[in-house]
Amino acid sequence: MATDTHADATLQGVRIQSLPKVSLHDHLDGALRPQTIIELASEIGLDVPSTDADDLADWFEDQSDSGSLVEYLKTFDLTTAVMQTRDGLRRVAREFVEDLAADGVIYGEVRWAPEQHLAGGLTLDEAVEAVQEGIEEGEDAVDANGSAIRVGQLITAMRHADRSLEIAKLAVAHRSRGAVGFDIAGAEDGFPASNHRAAFDYLASEFFPVTVHAGEAAGLDSIRSALIDGRALRLGHGVRIAEDLDVVQEKGEEVFVQFGDLARWVRDREIPLELSPSSNLQTGAIARWGTQLEDHPFDLLYQLGFSVTVNVDNRTMSRTSLTRELKLLADAFEYTLDDLEAFQLNAAAAAFLSVEEREELIELIAEGFDR
Asked: Catalytic residue at 216?
């Protein structure tokens, strides 16, 4: 049975879906509509686990709930397979934007790896151009419906491959045509950011923003490498920074925490954490603390002053939306609208935009929550 990822998501009488939001960690190949997968697969003669959209949504959710990032990533074989043509990429990108807007997102960054979408004969540039066409079509469609959204591309290199410098140059080449930042993704453990130092050196020389997947499937050393070797301005997930915190004493509701040097640096420098609660449960990223959302160190990090943001990671695999993630957190930790607003303001401040554009985004969020 399909799950409505927006249903009954209210807080203090307010529909969370209607609140203005910022989405920073959202994978294009993890955000396909099941019906779109079925239709695109039919066009290329690809077998799918089910030709019923609800059943296919069930399949993705079941396959992704493995407790392993490696197993979780295998579900992308199907989604990337239907994203190998210009039309396929354009459609998926357009629908991605439309779905963000339906979720109340007013600014989003979509991350994806062009090197994984060349099997149909596209060049890297053609792939990026196709996605940008889809984004702009989606933005226009949202505008025609009386809303507004802006979406930028985070051009991503696969950390287990050796094309990161090439992909970094691709990102910079498209910085005035939709690309707003760079990322590395894929199997984290055993593939540190230091393997891609040449790419990060180049990006730094071009003053191009970087976020790095770190602190999900690997721990503190991975985060350290993302910051030192990658010069990351944000941490993709970053949840395992909590491993550098030691709860040394508890008195009633008061908790005393001892910071490691890395955790203190991330907190004091306000390096944003792109946390994805449901995904972190599915991949086992929070296994050290437990297996339920209430065990997620999200609230600990928030209460200690880390710059936490809320994200979906992969809408299809986690069968979720930003509305749903916020509702889950509110239920788990008794958050109020003020808390949800704080998460959006953190995300707006962390967006890869100019300071003027971030200030405008912050004003839009404040106005939306005031209403």
From this structure: yes
- How far is 338 from 282, CA to CA, in rounded Å? 28
Domain 15-370 in CATH 3.20.20.140? The answer is: yes
Summarised one tens digit per residue, pLDDT across range 193-206 is: 999 999 999 999 99
**105, 142 in Cβ contact below 8 A?**
no
Catalytic residue among 188, 216, 274, 325: 216
Cβ-based burial of 5 (10 A; exposed 0-12, middle 13-18, buried ≥19): buried
Total residues found in the chain within this entry: 371
Q: Please state, in angstroms and rounded to a whole number, the distance separating the CA atoms of residues 30 and 24.
A: 14
| 230: its two tokens | 């990658």
Contact present, 329 and 342 (Cβ < 8 Å): no
DSSP bridge partners of 27: 111
pLDDT tens track for 298-321: 999 999 999 999 999 999 999 999
For position 2, what pLDDT does the model report? 40
Residue written as tokens 């001892």?
258
Write down the domain spans for the chain: 15-370
Sites in the chain below the pLDDT cut of 70: 1-8, 250-252
